[in-house]
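Input record (one chain):
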Amino acid sequence: LKRTTISTVVIDANGKPVKTVVSEQDAPQKEVRGPLRKRIRERKVDEFKDYVKKVGSLTQSYAHLDPEKLQQALQDGNFKVGSAGAGKRQFTVTGYLKPGDTLTIVFDSATKALVSMQVSSYLDQPDDAVSIKTTFARLPDGTNHLSESTVIGQDKDVVIAIKNSDYTKRG
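The corresponding structure, as predicted from the sequence alone:
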């Protein structure tokens, strides 16, 4: 564990999320002695931050699905529909964003809501794999929301876990 961040998110008048960090805690770090070791550590930290930014950017690319890309996948025969159990449909798209990637969406037909989404993709090369697993839940008023998300960047063994909770209605 490198860092734990707790934030509040409020949707503004334009429908955009506004995030406010409530608390942020870094894991304790060992003291590094010597200028060479400090420089090596700084370089590794910078590489790690760049990698996390790339993984985050890729994740955002899958967060808001493009209807035109989905339509193209359907026309190309890269769109499969199946059952995911009791009233649920599973949609699997291959080559959605990158050649060889897989996007799987589970949809509850009864509630007309997303249940989960799973992505197997990569950054620059297929051996630099990234997987995304997201689950959705319903609030008491029926609003469907992203409940949990886990992003795994396998090249640098990065796991980003996001858990959404404590929703309150304002106004």
